[in-house]
User: What shape does this take?
Amino acid sequence: MAAEITIQYNQVNWPLNQPFDQDGFLQLVQARVVDGGQDLTNQYDLSVEHRNLLVNQAGQYQVTINTVYDYQVLKRSVTVVVGNENQSYAANNQSNKRHRWWKWALVILVILVAWFALHQRNVNRANEALQESQSSQIASNSSQISSLSNDNQKLTNQINQLKAAVQQYQSDHDQSELTQSLNTIKQQNEEIKADLSTTSQAKLQAINSAINSISNHPDQAATTISNLEDSMQTATNWFNQFTQTISNWLNRI
Assistant: This one.
């Protein structure tokens, strides 16, 4: 097989008004010197005849690629279309750069979208956890307030019965009747004790102590009742402050 110049493209495009660049042109058409299938391009200089090429005037032109091989001149013609920038080697390079830029921009955009979605999911989970915690706390506080309210109501009923028994004794001075009433109240106290909170059970014990004091010193019953009511009033004030604090906290949620 005889030596020849091979090219990848028989026709190429060249931008209008772009100066002719021989090296760029040879790279564009991918010219090679081949002999028997062996690439000898690096051993020979290729040149381009382009005297008739007018880069400032659109149209088709013929250029010739030359080289001297073993005392013979090898030639290969190529059609150059001037004025189609989109398919020139320079335009192609620019297009590739733009393509790569858009590809990286798309990758960055996907990463940002994924990060935002993950961040938003974490925020939503945190908000849900906070809402669940607040709901649980609200339910717990409401239950506690309800329990304390029920306890106070039971304690108040026992104190009212004790006051009624004392008032009856002060009216008729019947010691036997007073003792029977006090025993009934103490029995009721034992029955409701298991249903009360630890704090309320302590208050119930104070009522039992007052009952014992009145039973031993009925003439001092009025003073004993007054002291009991004072201690219970302090506890009631604490309960009112607690419920008000909880109410204010719930209003801020």
Observations:
- The mean pLDDT is 84.
- Residues 89-172 form the longest helix (84 residues).
- The chain has five helices and seven strands.
- The CA atoms of residues 67 and 248 lie 96 Å apart.
